[in-house]
Amino acid sequence: MKDPAIVTRSPRRRVDQHKIVARAMRLARDDGLQAVTMRRLADELGTAPMTLYRHIPDRQALLLAMLDEVARGVAWPPPASDPRAEITAVLTAIHDALCRDSWAIGLIVTDKLAGPSIVPALERMFAALRRAGLTPRDSRVAFALLWHYTVGELLDSHMDAPDDPIGRRMVRESDPDAFPTLAAVVAGVPAGPPGDWFPENLQRVLDGLLPPTARHDAG
Q1: For the packed helices 119-131 and 83-100, what is the interaxial angle rounded to 10 degrees?
Q2: Do 22 and 109 have their domain in common?
Q3: Of the listed ranges 4-13, 102-111, 129-138, 145-154, the one predicted with least confidence
């Protein structure tokens, strides 16, 4: 017969940084970034919050590790010799990855966080801009515009939001007699989320950024 003074505890599960980040990613995808707290993670992993701090110093470090995991999971295309094709391929790969992990968009835009695994992609982007004939300064300006377009499109079209938000519905239901041009433009656009205009608008942006000799078809 067991001594009643002896309390049997369930054994704590072994955790490491990889397991912590993987579970945090799952929580963010399933329940949103607000669900990712150290206490919730500890409960999910069957351990104590203090155990997590042995591997991750604080929540910001966890968020950086999660962003780095997103970057490592990007399906990077092989390098292209044509600058326009290279820029298009790299930005499209980033865009597609952030569509899958939309919880990361706010961290990148608002908190200005990024993991080190994104640096090779930045090198490719700037190398392509320089090959296209842009000066170092113009390359920085051009990259800023390309990045702002990419994250702006993600914020507008891929963040968790109603399919028919109030602003879009308000425009669609405006008085056609008072706003005839607006009514004509939106008449053929169905209700719901906007179309996938990222690829064609990216090419429009590149038309304005790249010198004429670099304006090849991106294929």
Answers
A1: 150
A2: no
A3: 4-13
Is the same domain home to 92 and 174? yes
Residue 90: how many CB atoms within 10 A of its CB? 23
| Number of compact structural domains in the chain | 2
What pTM did the predictor assign?
0.79
Stretch 75-89: mean pLDDT? 96
Per-residue tokens: 217: 């078809």
Decide: 66 and 25 in contact? Cβ < 8 Å.
Answer: yes
DSSP class per residue in 37-105: -HHHHHHHHTS-HHHHHTT-SSHHHHHHHHHHHHHHTS-PPPP-SSHHHHHHHHHHHHHHHHHHTTHHH
> Which are the contacts of 17, defined by CB distance < 8 A and separation ≥ 6?
55, 56, 65
